[in-house]
Amino acid sequence: MKRELAKDLKLAGFPVGAYRSGHKFYPLEDDSGWTEAARQNGIIISAYDIESRLQDLRNGYYCPNLSDLIDACGKHFARVYPLKAMWIAESASGERAAMGQTPEEAVAELWLALNKVKAPDGNHRG
Questions:
Q1: Domain count, the chain
Q2: What is the pTM of this model?
Q3: Which among 41, 57, 113, 123 has most CB atoms closer than 10 A?
Q4: In terms of Cα–Cα distance, which of 58, 81, 77 is closest to 115?
């Protein structure tokens, strides 16, 4: 998942449960406690990060996995499937669909669309 999408999820109030090892995370852009590479490309969270850097995790941008994203969509989620070089996620009602380069990105975009979240530019996403 790209930084901007993880940031959009956070700003939209995506429900993050417990932070777990193995998930991707992006530190805040100006967090000097992380390397430039970590700020730009993100890191994979370790047990050490959860124990020692939990506040950094809360401040930054957590990337939920596919299961977390589908759970957050709840009964509104219908399916996610590949179409050529993209992934499509659809709502149960069929009125919403979203695309992404990965299944996680497609379902994240669907969650944003279902929650009618405004993007930072003021336009509705989805």
A1: 2
A2: 0.85
A3: 113
A4: 77
